[in-house]
Amino acid sequence: MASVCFITDAGNCSGDKFSCNETPGGGSGNPGQNPDYDTPQEQCLAAGYGVTSCPTGSHGKNPCPADSSYYKECVCDANMTETCEKTYYGVGPSCDGKYARCERDDDRACKEDGYNQTGSCGTLQTASGICPYNSSYYRECVCQSGLVSCTSPQVGGGSSCDGKYASCQCPSSYKICDCGGAVGATSCTDSSGIIRFSNCKDCCTPEPDETNCLYGTVTVADGCGGTRTACKAKPPCEPLPDDTNCNYGIVTVADGCGGVRVVCKGQTFPDDDGVKVEDGDVCYIIGKFEGYGRGSDAIKHPPEGGWEILDLDTWLYMIKNVEAINDQLRQMGEPSLRNDWYWTSTVCSSNGYVYVLNPYTGEISCTTSVYEGGISDTYSRYFKACD
Questions:
Q1: Distances 197 to 167, 181, 183, 187, 260 between C-alpha atoms, Å
Q2: Could you say which architecture CATH assigns to the domain 266-385?
């Protein structure tokens, strides 16, 4: 049998060898003896050509020299070039994840992503989770928005979905009462917001509530067994008195009753931390630092060193010296007090809201929730007692 010599024999093909270290007749070097491999197929397999067939869409590469029906590997056909991405899918065989062509299939894409429902939903239901590839597919049917739960004595009208109805009605025995329900009567509100009663009370025209009250309100009888809101009478105004024995000059401010009064000015001095204000027995330092933000943050997190947010009384005492304080701050190159709102630490309501004050106008306001038109962020200034 003739030997087949491969390129990889590296010079070992001597006529009595088939390949490197392969010898006929048991390796004795005797020509004419039977070789170690009997067939070309065995030679191919021994040399690593182990592929004899390839899947559709591919073909053999690098055939065996001894038998061309044996290959080293399979490779994709030249037309297998398309990578299909949802909503496109491969048609026919694939090779290494590629196809000869792709076709769009929105129905298949919807189902793969869990959009398995089609057709109409039941009464009072609507489709939820619409497939982005084909809107006729959806995930589930859910109750329509706007359905309401009926509470006794209400009864639902028509069909229901998860215990909810399109509308709620009151029993036919309940009546619309011009003057409200009688004592002990039960009420029922229908879906249009009309209140009905099991029994009506006799009519009485109550005295109306009073509005736009300048000095507060008080609750009084309405003449029909109920109550109404009435305005409080104007209280007598007691103007604040003038200051006397002023050491550092005077300034005119509002007296609280529409007039003016005379108050003493304090004396101001520059200080390393801000401006020192001496006014009789009172001495405090207005800090150089000015913040801006929420009142709760300003009150809870003052600078270290004994500083705190000015309370309302200190602000009121201080604003008569606002021009002198600002002169000192400007000379020091620090931000002066603004014609704007500043936080105080004085609580003005049971909800924990605090007063804000304008040091220029003296205007005071009790803050409310930002949802009620209140202040959420404004300026803050700190003070501390003199050493």
A1: 18, 5, 11, 4, 59
A2: Roll (3.10)
Provide CB contacts within 8 A for 85, sequence distance 6+. Answer: none
Please state the φ and ψ torsions of residue 292, each to the nearest 5 degrees. -150, 130
Burial 333-342 (b: 16+ CB within 10 A, else e): ebeebeeebb
> Which residues, at least 6 apart from 191, have a Cβ–Cβ distance to it below 8 Å?
148, 157, 167, 168, 169
Q: Is 271 helix (H, G, I), strand (E, B) or coil?
A: strand
User: What are the tokens at 386?
Assistant: 């003199």
Asked whether the predicted pLDDT for residue 13 surpasses 80, the reply is no
pLDDT surpasses 50 at 52: yes
50 half-sphere exposure, CB direction, 13 A CA radius:
2
- Using 50, 70 and 90 to split pLDDT, how confident is the model at 24? very low
- R_g (Cα) of the chain, nearest Å: 48
Identity of residue 41: Q
Query: Global pTM?
Result: 0.35
**Cα distances (angstroms) measured from residue 22 to each of 10, 26, 38, 128:** 13, 9, 13, 74
| CA nearest neighbour of 315 among 353, 368, 369, 354 | 354
Residues of the chain with CATH 3.10.100: 266-385
